Amino acid sequence: MARKGRGEGGGESWLNTYADMVTLLLTFFIVMLSMSTIEVEKFDALVRSFNPGYDKGVSDGGDSDFIIEDPMDGLSIDQELTMETLFEMIQEYIQENNMQNDMSASLENGLIYLRFSSAMLFVPDSYTMLSGSKPLMDFVGTVLKLYEERIKSINILGHTARTGRINSNVSDWLLSGERAATVAMYFEDIGVDKNKMITFGYGDNYPIADNTTESGRSQNRRVELVIVGMESMDNFDIYGMLSGVIDDNDMASGDVLTPRPPAGGAPEAGGED
């Protein structure tokens, strides 16, 4: 009796298995091809839909840079941080937000001077911060936190105007100190190291403009920040130091702190700080 050869009598079933394998391989390569040409934006959107925190605080540049979250709208900054780049960031913020009349900044010998009008920060005769000033304070606190390793100290100076108040319960000493402390506490809530912050309340003792006019008093009502870099001088005597390096002619521009002894002349009665 002759033996049946291979493939005879139902030996073709292996073709089904082979066809299935080819189909699976073809499907695999199609998937790989589609992944290689996928649009990055759509892929990121898909990932974010499953993970809402996917793109928060993530850099697209590795370890060399990183992203600052709001209020800075995803601004990328190089890790080589200096007092000069900090100053440039603040100056850019002032210009982009048209805040030249309410805020000024200058850089001297590794010290950054910031001046804020009290009218833009606080309710009159109060240390309650205006809600409209919080985006600005968020920005300043965020960049101070970012540059913290380059900063030796953050000195916050509160000032009021000599208004000649009659029968007022508002103390210029307390009000100026409380406003400086309010700014410090706001920065602390953002994460700025409280050990680097020092608050001063100068009352109405260091006006920078004539108290006999409302325009002058509005300039004297202010909060100032003196940010001392790590490479700055060790001894910090704000008014003694500035008297030797700041030109009195700069006072009118409002760009730098300009210490002046208490202004003479009788101020108008009343008014707000």
Task: Give an account of the 3D structure.
The termini are far apart. Helix 5 (134-146) packs across helix 6. The chain has 273 residues and is an alpha+beta fold. The chain has helices at residues 14-36, 40-50, 83-96, 118-121, 134-146, 172-190, 214-220, 238-245, and strands at residues 65-67, 76-78, 103-108, 111-117, 151-159, 197-201, 222-229. Mean pLDDT is 74; it is low at 49-76, 241-246 and 250-269. It is elongated and about 110 Å long. The chain is built from 8 helices and 7 strands; from the N terminus they run ααββαββααβαβαβα. A 5-stranded mixed β-sheet has the order 3-4-7-5-6. It has a two-stranded antiparallel sheet with strand order 1-2. The protein is 36% helix and 15% strand.
* pLDDT averaged residue by residue: 74
Shape: elongated
Strand order of the largest sheet: 3-4-7-5-6
Mind summarizing the main beta sheet?
5 strands, mixed
Number of helices: 8
Q: In what range is the share of β-strand residues?
A: 15-25%
Radius of gyration: 32 Å
Short description:
The chain is an alpha+beta fold. 36% of the residues lie in helices and 15% in strands.
Provide keyphrases for this structure.
273 residues; alpha+beta; five-stranded mixed beta sheet; two-stranded antiparallel sheet; 8 helices; 7 strands; 15% strand; elongated
